[in-house]
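Quarterly update, task 2.4: adenosine-5'-triphosphate-bound model.
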Amino acid sequence: MSSSSLPHQSPPAAKPIGHLSALGRLLPYIRPVLPRLLLGTFAALLSALLSLATPMVMRLLVDGPLAAADAAAVWPVALLILALALGEAFFVFMRRFLVTLPSTQVEATMRSALYRKLQALPVAFHDRWQSGQLLSRAVQDLGMIRRFSAFGAPLLVVNAITLVVGIVILFVWSPLLASVFVVLSAPIVFVALRFERRYFLVSRAAQDQAGDLATTVEQSIHGIRVLKAFGRGRHALEGFTSQASTLRETEIDKARMDGHLWMWLTIVPYISYAVCLFIGVGLAADGQLSVGTLAAFFAIAMVLNWPIESIGFLFAFLIDASNASRRFHEIIDSENTIVDPAEPVSIAQPRGSLVFEDVHFRYQDAQPRERDLVDGATLALEPGETMALIGITGSGKTTLTALPTRLYDVTGGRVLLDGVDVRDLSLTELRTHVAMAFEDATLFSASVRDNVLMGAPDASEAALERALAIAQAGFARDLPKGLDTEIGEEGLSLSGGQRQRLALARAVAAAPAVLVLDDPLSALDVETEALVEEALRSVLETTTALIVAHRPSTVQLADRVALMRDGRIDDVGTHSELLARNEHYRFVITSLEETERDRQSIETVTGSMAAIDLDDLNETSEEVAR
Ligand SMILES: Nc1ncnc2c1ncn2[C@@H]1O[C@H](COP(=O)(O)OP(=O)(O)OP(=O)(O)O)[C@@H](O)[C@H]1O
């Protein structure tokens, strides 16, 4: 899927909800730490109010001891100003101390909630969302929300209150000067509104672009072997650089808008001060205003300078945080369609009968005119039966095998386990009864033991040994720390065949009633595959198995074979029955045999090449050269 077609990547055309509503949605996460955050905000408010008190004391100083030339009276006032400054510093410290802890807790709680949701959301959700978009929400957006709750929000509240209190003081001292100051500062509101409209879109675009960039990094690291093998490093770098410069331009756009707003927020108040100074000096000269009041008026106006100037970045901060909240809630609000039923049925002793009953399935992004990918598949597996599933590529085999464990839900028909619709079982119980191994064997950054026992953490050591033996994964014991060896991210330090064998051991260790294997032996060489198949027979005697087969030898492992064609089960029977009666089956088997022959010849050639002595090769080439 092309990245540009993903719905979450482009900024929304219109604001779905306002900034305050978007931030209000964070309340459930903030509520537990709200008292402490409010206390921090209160400390910040006290420090701001103390900063306003200083000019008031100065006014007393100028109109009192200074006007009366009373030097002795200056000292107590100076000490009072010092005390106010110390008080202000103390409350600044208290604000930081009080808000840091709760804001990190908000971030951690939200991150856990996001991770829990991502785990619960169905595979169909993950098909549509790029990993980088999820990653950037989990890291960048939540960091933004933490900083806003610790710093932005308290400062916004405090600065707003400081501004109001400061303006009220100005009005008390000189209604005329205060009115001039307020009226001349009014254009700031229009500038801010214009800024809000434009900044909202650019801020959202930057956050989405950061997500795209994270996706690119993730993909290139994930696919580093392919990039290196095909010499595509430069191409990947060019793509990354182009994305990075797009993000840079967007960030510059943001900074430019911020800078413009900041400029107006600086210019406009200073024009107001200049006019006020002009009028104020006139008033003082006429004796309508004391010199102390005029000095204090400007001292207050200067204190208000910061709350006014900070509106710019705090407003930008608020928009960034509200966008971060929207992006977070886009995940949290995603509907999880694959959930436990209201009243789950339980199967105490599963026998392992698996039935597909007129099953239909189509992916979410399928076009309306396309037929269903699984288009009325009906298939019954008896308890303990091993059924191979074959068909030409794209016939829907992998998709069908994803339905019993509810990786996807059927869009029509039913999948029954021991006669119970799989949607009526709790997901935990269902996935205990049905285990899967995929062709693409994913392992985690954990020990071999933890990887294998993922589906059965309480399994005994004997069960673990048995699973490893069946999957021919004895090599794991020879790793540096045996089964406690940590395997690298996604098991990339192991060979493809080794990873597949561990993934198969994981499915076997889960001791399920039904085993669904989607071509899990494809990376094994012929001999190892034969050994695994032989060992699997012992498991498969008691376990129902549905095995997607791409090799004739896997087909022979099965009791019966189901032939899938155009999303339906075309025929079911033993290998020889189908060979005798079904032409399409013969065609599929022939093509599997041809593919297998090609594979074996490649293996033989690779094996012989490995056996050639390099000295012989050198001698031969020298002879050829001669
Ligand atoms: N997550 C997905 N979203 C949309 N379409 C998908 C998705 N996964 C598979 N498809 C499409 O479904 C079709 C059938 O895929 P599926 O993997 O089930 O076939 P298959 O028979 O297992 O093929 P193969 O033998 O090559 O593995 C393909 O055309 C594929 O493009």
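Highlight for this quarter: The longest strand covers residues 354-361.
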